[in-house]
Design goal:
This protein is α/β, with parallel strands linked by helices. Helix content is about 35%, strand content about 25%. The chain has helices at about 5-10, 10-25, 30-45, 105-120, 140-145, 150, 205-225, 260-280, 300-315, 335-340, 380-395; strands at about 50, 60-65, 70-75, 125-130, 155-165, 170-175, 175-180, 185-190, 195, 230-240, 245, 250-260, 285-295, 300, 320, 345-350. The protein has an 8-stranded mixed beta sheet with strand order 1-2-4-3-5-16-6-15, sandwiched between helices. Strands 10-12-8-13 form a 4-stranded antiparallel beta sheet, covered by helices on one side. Strands 7-14 form a two-stranded antiparallel ribbon. Helix 4 crosses helix 11 and helix 9 (about 300-315) packs across helix 11 (about 380-395).
Length: about 400
């Protein structure tokens, strides 16, 4: 690997920072301590800091030379509202909160790059270090944009990175176009008429209507959209009733829809609504249909993806780079950034879990699992990628 030597020498300090963040997880828009740690490190290295975008966001600014070109490098900072199962020394000290998605590692990798870029300044232009809050359901990227991220810090492109368990440690992967799905949720209440279960003809059974709706919705996926357009419609909750001999007044359906394109999402949402309303009406019931669009599809820009691949091969070697990784139906709010600016989002392999210290939980080392832990061996790799990204994007005149 073509890693940055000073970053390798700084690896133990980065490991300490990462494990400190892991031990002190903070949920979306609560990342005050995390932001304090990030800002203090940046200021210690002489990097100007702006705080408050997205409430708890931090932006570091490193300028060099005379070029007006600029890029943004983003790391997310928030943790998840879940219990950690690990018992090693750096496990979460806050019950019900855990860095189970590796944002502690993402933050540490960008800090490692920041230190080197500030010391060496082997680039011509501006590097904006975007430490974003509230990726886990809070749409912190969108909030930073609304607070003026791209007007206050004009940049030509923005890049992001996420660790990916199950892929060989230190490998890098990406694909142009849709790489992660949109995230959407629905909440549907079927309003019938309660009755004694022994006299169903005297009521309007919302349970049976909900079952009809649930089955009919699947035909939208299999018969109404093109088979070439990937989509998922998952009903994850059905709630109704409180007694064995009572037909309830209401039944509720809750779940998620994932797509790679907005037109497919438009089709699914409109057809879900129509099927629910007309099915309910056919049985004499009513329906309340709520559909919430959370995160849009994450679509990598072709030019920036090609450039990212060039940087990836420079850092880890072509044999450790996958330029056609399979897209995932998971979602990521970096998608909001890519709707506003050219850019690219990549994965860095986190391994299978062998890196975990003794005292880890019995579960697998996968994202959003109580036994997960970020692989500290990635710290110099990810930080070196960010450094090369900045230097190759903003080359010094020779």
């Amino acid at each position: 690997m073509n890693l940055v030597e000073p970053i390798i020498a700084f690896q133990s300090e980065l490991r300490q920072i990462r494990r400190d963040l892991h031990a002190h997880p903070e949920l979306c828009y609560e990342e005050q301590r995390t932001a304090d740690v990030v800002a203090a490190q940046l200021e210690q290295w002489g990097i100007p800091v702006v705080r408050g975008l997205g409430r708890t966001g931090v932006v570091g600014i490193i300028k060099n030379g005379n070029s007006e070109r600029a890029i943004g490098l983003r790391a997310d900072m928030d943790a998840l509202p879940m219990q950690e199962m690990n018992t090693f020394a750096h496990a979460s000290r806050h019950p019900g909160k855990m860095h189970a998605c590796g944002h502690d590692g993402h933050t540490a990798m960008l800090l490692g790059a920041a230190r080197h870029l500030a010391q060496q300044r082997n680039f011509d232009g501006t590097v904006y270090l975007v430490f974003q809050p509230a990726e886990e359901g809070g749409a912190g990227a969108r909030q930073m944009i609304r607070d003026g991220l791209f007007t206050q810090f004009p940049m030509d492109a923005i890049y992001g990175m996420h660790n990916w368990p199950g892929t060989a440690s230190g490998t890098l992967s990406v694909v142009a176009g849709p790489m992660m799905a949109s995230s959407n949720e629905f909440h549907v209440v079927v309003k019938g008429k309660g009755a004694h279960a022994a006299q169903p003809h005297k009521g309007i059974d919302p349970v049976m209507i909900a079952v009809q709706i649930a089955q009919s919705w699947q035909a939208i996926i299999t018969r109404e959209k093109s088979p070439l357009d990937t989509a998922v419609l998952s009903i994850t909750q059905i709630h109704a009733g409180s007694a064995t001999n009572v037909i309830p007044d209401e039944a509720t359906l809750v779940g998620t829809v994932r797509t790679f394109t907005t037109p497919v999402l438009d089709l699914i949402e409109s057809r879900m609504r129509a099927v629910a309303e007309h099915t309910a009406a056919g049985f004499g019931a009513e329906v309340e249909f709520t559909f919430k669009r959370n995160y849009p599809p994450l679509v990598n820009h072709a030019r920036e993806t090609a450039f990212a691949l060039e940087v990836m091969r420079d850092v880890v070697g072509a044999e450790r780079v996958d330029g056609n990784v399979e897209p995932t139906m998971g979602a990521e709010d970096f998608a909001f950034f890519l709707q506003e600016k050219p850019g690219c989002y990549i994965f860095i392999g986190n391994g299978e879990g062998e890196h975990r210290d003794g005292g880890h939980g019995l579960g697998p080392c996968v994202l959003h699992n109580g036994s997960y832990d970020f692989n500290d061996a990635l710290l110099p790799i990810g930080a070196s990628f960010w450094v090369r990204m900045a230097e190759m994007s903003l080359p010094l005149a020779r």
